[in-house]
């Protein structure tokens, strides 16, 4: 398995708390803004959003910096290029409202290239394949949350993935 095929969470030294996980394919998603809006339904307050981007909009960057999570773990970046910026952001209601509003007028690349959601050392969502419209959710999350997320305008098809199968 090549480096790019190892889930972002494992590359970052964080991991899912369960060996199984949910894979959501959003090939029919209407727009990235619906993905951003649906995140709050899954995670609520207290989770941390890890973001990497090489073309992040200045207004979006200012939002990330204003909500920076200061106790972030050291991570190995997915994109080692110096121009790629990295942010750890506390996902609370005020941050999510502002990011959702920006997502209505910004492109995917202006918001991120990849993202991960974690709490402590537990990964809740691996979004290293967002550009392909695929995300992985921790198996610790109940199916009801994944189903609700998938039934929004992200139009996701979700499946339960056993350890060692369909890792990418």
In short:
This protein is 29% helix and 24% strand.
Describe this entry's structure for a reader.
- With 168 residues, the protein is α+β, with helices and mostly antiparallel strands.
- The chain contains six helices and seven strands.
- It has helices at 8-11, 32-43, 58-66, 93-103, 108-111, 143-150, and strands spanning 21-25, 47-53, 85-91, 114-119, 122-127, 134-138, 157-161.
- It has a seven-stranded antiparallel β-sheet with strand order 3-2-4-5-6-1-7.
- A hairpin with a 6-residue loop joins strand 5 (122-127) and strand 6 (134-138).
- Helix 2 runs antiparallel to helix 4 (93-103) and helix 2 runs antiparallel to helix 6 (143-150).
- The longest helix is centred in the first third of the chain and has 12 residues, at 32-43.
- The chain starts with 7 loop residues before the first helix and ends in a 7-residue tail after the last strand.
The class by helix and strand makeup works out as alpha+beta
Helix content: 25-40%
Distance between the termini: 10 Å
Low-confidence stretches at least 5 residues in length (pLDDT < 50)?
A: 1-5
Radius of gyration: 15 Å
| Helical stretch tally | 6
Strand order of the largest sheet: 3-2-4-5-6-1-7
Number of strands: 7
Overall mean pLDDT stands at 87
Provide the β-strand percentage band.
Answer: 15-25%
Report the biggest beta sheet as strand number plus sense, adding barrel if it closes: 7 strands, antiparallel
Oligomeric status: single chain
Coarse shape: globular
Question: What's the order of the H and E elements?
Answer: HEHEHEHHEEEHE
